[in-house]
Amino acid sequence: MAEDLSIQTMISLVKQGKVPQHVAIIMDGNGRWARMRGLARTVGHKYGVEKLRDLLTVCKAIGIKYVTVYAFSTENWSRPKEEVETLMKLIVEFINKEIDNIKNEGARVHVLGDWSVLPTASRDAVAYAIDHTKDNTELHLNVALNYGGRAELVKAFKDMAAKVVAGELAIDDITESVIAEHLYTAGMPDPDLVIRTAGEMRLSNFLPYQSAYAELWISPANVFWPDFGKDVFLKAIMDYQKRDRRFGGLSSK
Ligand code: FPP
What we know:
Blueprint: H1 2-16, E1 22-26, H2 30-36, H3 41-62, E2 66-73, H4 81-104, E3 107-112, H5 120-132, E4 139-147, H6 149-165, H7 176-180, E5 193-196, E6 215-218, H8 230-242
Parallel strand pairs: 1-2, 1-5, 2-4, 3-4, 5-6
Helix pairs in contact: 1-8, 2-3, 3-4, 4-5
The chain binds farnesyl diphosphate (FPP).
């Protein structure tokens, strides 16, 4: 009860400030969280998935419109087969368990990345999640799956080159916003804030084009993704609200 009260207080405080439109999250440290408890890495991922519900609840409560989570990168295929299989199964379990809640929260699911190569069961679940929530507009949940920022740029450049060859796009018409319209995030605002848990100070190929001016918030090294509760998220937003975003210009202070 006491915790709920303090969360409510934090939510009220955050709502008085500037709320980011788009928050992107690198959910790191599942393996370390599990190892510290003598558990298999895959158990860390299972606990990690559980944190997504709280995340959506807070986003909705404070009015964040877009939240992007890095669930599986193009590089993650190189992990042990059993771990990859568990992650693929977790996608299915997560959707089966949470899709009604996601829908009722008014959230629409999008996938960033080439999900056509996922195992059939994961692909079917993803297709269902996208279709089942397609009429929602209140909150957008982007799940980055088989996503890599460089691969995304390669795809965008190929798509634009094909249009140039077909005479549908002039080279001089390629602008920053035209490039943005060829990314998986077409039509969405850039992330205002990128959060990474577990203390690592890098972007790991996550939204490199879109995050050019994002604020970064890295949790302490002992806060792993399965530890990421509402309080930690709200603390990150509060810290963001103290930042002076200059976009290359002068301070507004
Ligand atoms: C990083 O921890 C986490 C991942 C590579 C996967 C994140 C995935 C989930 C939380 C579950 C799947 C998500 C959905 C939406 C179903 P790590 O394994 O790199 O941890 P470590 O750095 O401590 O080893």
